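WARN retry 2 of 3 for item q-0093 after timeout on previous attempt; input resubmitted unchanged.
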Amino acid sequence: MRILLVEDTEDVAEPIVATFSRHGHAVDHMATREAAEDALAVQEYDLIILDLMLPDGSGLEVLRGLRAAHCPTPVLVLTARLDVDDRVDALDTGADDYLTKPFDLRELEARARALIRRQCEVRSGVVLYGDLSLDAAARTASVNGTPLPLTRREFRLLEILIANRGRVVPKDRLFGKLFSFEETDVGLNAIELYIARLRRKLAASNVSIRTLRGLGYQLERHE
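OK item q-0093 returned
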């Protein structure tokens, strides 16, 4: 998934970026309200992790702007404030969840997965499609019980396709979800490479990736 992290404290931001990137997510890290709003103006995100105390304003103003624009992207607020009123303000403004600093990165990951499942209306962490099984929490996929040897980015690509199963996903949308602003050396044709690799690994299943020229890719099941 593509994540926007808005956090001005490097000691907090660095492990968050490292953790989510290690698992194949694309993370854009912004340290100010202005930078966050600039990123949101040009990029759609699957999740926003938002600190409330920023050097040029409050994270609540970013949140208010999102909800005023009817943006449904789930927002997980990070706060060092222990006062109940502050947490209530964040939730009433439109936050979907919050974590109080300091926090365990494992809990942050688990809450992020829960928000994404809620957004996709998928309550279970395991998705079954044909003879393909994908466990988002364990970051594993298998065909008829046999594990698929997927790299982290191949897994994320499959996760996107299976979340949109039966629908066509444009190449540029896949690119936007897999690569962050920092990965400027990666071209759009990288998607074709990852699709080809994933196709080979799905060859023994009754699920395949269909290419629709000029439109994108579609995960489909064969009976």
